[in-house]
Amino acid sequence: MRYGMTLPPFGPFAEPHYLMELAQAAEAAGWDGFFLWDTVIHDEHGYPIAEPWTALAAIAAVTTRLRLGVMITPLSRRRPWQVARQVLTLDHLSNGRVIFGAGLGGALHDFDWFGEETDAKVRAAMLDEGLQIVRGLWSGERTSFTGNHYTVAPVQFMPPPIQPHLPIWIGGMWPNQAPMRRAARFDGVFPLKGGFPPPPEDLAAVKAFIEPRRSHPAAPFDYVASGITPGDDPAAGAAQVAPYIAAGATWWLETIDPWTRHRDWSVVLGHEDEVWMDTRIRQSPPKR
């Protein structure tokens, strides 16, 4: 079992030097992963927001052990070949510590306010094509692609990633089956339910659905659980995580954000939340 955290690079957390400091503190506290949200504007509140790949490059330069990535990148609003380059560069900068998270994305204003595609079915098709493209470009081999949304002439991306197989986790809402079928073709799944972490029994159901559909059953596959645990009581946190481990979780992602904390997307990020987020990042993961 590994333990990471996800956080929105919003408000004071949009300051790259502060994120670098927090990532170093998380690494020193024993966390295994540090993942940022990928959003352009998020909502009407107009928070300061950091561009995640740039911030992660800075974080990679001041950490040595943390797995790094974005949870998740809405690939349909990015150029897949540009993302492929960004991830390759970060993989080299971090000496092979990147995990690539991809999905549809849930911040609708990131799409409609900028003239991006808003139809979920079209975005899903773009996501599937984009995933084929990035994986092909990471192969180190000459690759091409022709789809309904993207075309790539025969091209070779060098250098290949440091990791022999750069892992891809797919995010999606359970009990929707389409994202779970998509995840079965890759290396891990990060499920949510109604926009929030699901209970252990749902993670067990996700695993039961995915396992018989996996493209490569013998390969490693990550089931990512998430939630909020008490940072001042690691034993209680470990007891909270234990049912997820029993359900098959291989990663726990602490959700360091006020929306999961209050289970309310209308909450405005405030000073009390900022203090709580800072404190929780510096505390230990929920393990005995």
Description:
By secondary structure, the protein is an alpha/beta fold. The chain has a single domain, classed as Luciferase-like domain (TIM Barrel, Alpha-Beta Barrel). Helices cover 38% and strands 18% of the residues. Strands 3-2-1-11-10-9-8-5-4 form a 9-stranded parallel sheet. It is globular, with a radius of gyration of 18 Å. The chain starts with a strand and ends in a 6-residue tail after the last helix.
Which secondary structure elements does this structure contain, and how are they paired or packed?
Elements: E1 2-7, H1 16-29, E2 33-36, H2 52-62, E3 67-70, E4 73-74, H3 80-93, E5 100-103, H4 109-112, H5 120-137, E6 143-146, E7 151-155, E8 168-173, H6 177-183, E9 188-192, H7 200-210, E10 222-227, H8 234-247, E11 251-255, H9 258-262, H10 271-282
Parallel strand pairs: 1-2, 1-11, 2-3, 4-5, 5-8, 8-9, 9-10, 10-11
Antiparallel strand pairs: 6-7
Helix pairs in contact: 1-2, 2-3, 3-5, 7-8
